[in-house]
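[Target chain]
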Amino acid sequence: MSGKLNLLLTAVLVGCALSLVNAQYRARHLFIELGNVQQQERQLDIDWAQLQLDQSTLGKNARIEQIARTELNMAPLTPARTQYLTEGVK
């Protein structure tokens, strides 16, 4: 009877040990995955800040005016170049 009990307790002990090893392996694996996701989060935050900076730079009036003058050959509107249209006058 004592031999069967020892065998049963040994089997339970081995099962618990294997379960512990499996739990530690999974915890280690999840910890590594967490580190990777945190690194990705930091990179996305950096990219977001860069995009916000680019958006504010590209939307400035001075830059838009400079592009309109150089690339589109546009000139600012002056009163001398303004044509007024009136209804009914020929």
Q: What stands out?
A: The CA atoms of residues 3 and 31 lie 42 Å apart. The helical segments are 2-58, 61-70. The chain is about 75% helix and 0% strand.
